[in-house]
Amino acid sequence: xxxxxxxxxxxxxxxxxxxxxxxxxxxxxxxxxxxxxxxxxxxxxxxxxxxxxxxxxxxxxxxxxxxxxxxxxxxxxxxxxxxxxxxxxxxxxxxxxxxxxxxxxxxxxxxxxxxxxxxxxxxxxxxxxxxxxxxxxxxxxxxxxxxxxxxxxxxxxxxxxxxxxxxxxxxxxxxxxxxxxxxxxxxxxxxxxxxxxxxxxxxxxxxxxxxxxxxxxxxxxxxxxxxxxxxxxxxxxxxxxxxxxxxxxxxxxxxxxxxxxxxxxxxxxxxxxxxxxxxxxxxxxxxxxxxxxxxxxxxxxxxxxxxxxxxxxxxxxxxxxxxxxxxxxxxxxxxxxxxxxxxxxxxxxxxxxxxxxxxxxxxxxxxxxxxxxxxxxxxxxxxxxxxxxxxxxxxxxxxxxxxxxxxxxxxxxxxxxxxxxxxxxxxxxxxxxxxxxxxxxxxxxxxxxxxxxxxxxxxxxxxxxxxxxxxxxxxxx
Length: 477
Prior knowledge:
This protein is an all-alpha fold. Helix content is 75%, strand content 0%. The protein has two domains: 17-204 and 261-461, Growth Hormone, Chain: A (Up-down Bundle), CATH 1.20.1250.20; 205-260.
């Protein structure tokens, strides 16, 4: 335990545990809010930005793509230069990016600002690592459950806040609001979060950063623009091929580098591997609901695919899922201590499966969508709380930071993929007016259901006893 030097609020001693957890959770909520900041406006973005629907989909996707690449970079930089310091840098970048987007009138400026906002996602694994360093063991599982769940809570509640702000003011106000949240997060982190003296040597793997970015971009370009380019066109197939080959070369390079950006050997352990694969599926299934449900609620009822709600009414229908996640987060920590993280993860993935089965069978009334989304919220609260604990019990203490960063990467790639896939399907299956058909939403639900089923299978494959032999692991009990 180290004193929080220069905090100003608790001089000479470390801040109370509740203040540390509160500051870190707020940073997590702020970062996840960036995922859905523009989601309520996605149906209107082509008009607001004078661009095609395929182009405006990148206002959402770029944030998720940058988040996927930035997560392991943030974790590595946190180990090298201090986790608190990197969290402050990420908050500052969020503020700058929000201001850039707020002052922009073209799609280019908005995409640049949104990309900078995506960098802040790295605060979640950094926050989990800080909690591991400074909290008492008996409080750790509940605190980590809360921090991990902020990825879902912030997104769901942020939908309602974004819709309200956009409803009563110009859409640029959303970015000024995001800048204000970033400023509050910066101050809270500065005043409340202690810095660890632990450091590791080495350099940042810039080649690994470039390879990961290029590989993910190639694949997501194929998914999001394939319909416009033609799925079998040379441009689309070339993008896919470049992405896949780059990721294969990137993986080989990471395995042969002494200080890799992502330690893939850690990912080979069964508990870590299956938790990460489940994390990809859960990230995909979760963000699929964020893309499809709001659009379905807002589209005119005359189209046969929507319910004609206002932006704010649709957001109010989505918000209960966030409230459920917030209420269940503390209970998830207790549930994990009583019954184990593996059962908690399996319960969460199963709830997502039930949610999409419900949406496929019953989606003719508004309350059907509300119920399905609440079930998604329950599943995310349980599964996102379970995955960090599975990983922390499966690896030595000195590897928990990089391992949780890797899990966050898989979840981020899942959300990025969902944004691209759902956007591609909805853009490809439209009526004569360019509005997604009801069949397009059903296809999206089937795809999300398949991802949730795969996540459930991987959750069941997680070993019951996860501690590696002969190694000291963190016991969160």
